[in-house]
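Example 3.2
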Amino acid sequence: VQLQASGGGLVQPGGSLTLSCAASGFTFSNYAMTWIRQTPQKGLEYVGDINSGGLITKIPDPVKGRFTIPRDNARKRAYLQMNSLKPEDTAVYYCKARRFDVELWGQGTQVTVSS
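Structure, written as tokens:
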């Protein structure tokens, strides 16, 4: 059972980046997917999620209109598409799979927004 997040890096303010979360070892299409980020200053912050079927997404106000969360169940991947990035988006980003009371976490990927 594994979730592998990737795609982080250094990007300039106003730029875009897409993170990927690859799943293996479980039935990906049965799980909702959540993205969470962590900074020393704010701790863990919810970034958004998408239901198992990919039809319902929830995006919190701090990133609404800039971030989207698509998924591809055939490829067992979820994504975090980030546009108009700001320095305050700098964080370690994690993906999490959730089904009832089961949660599976991937390792984090660092995103740094800086000029």
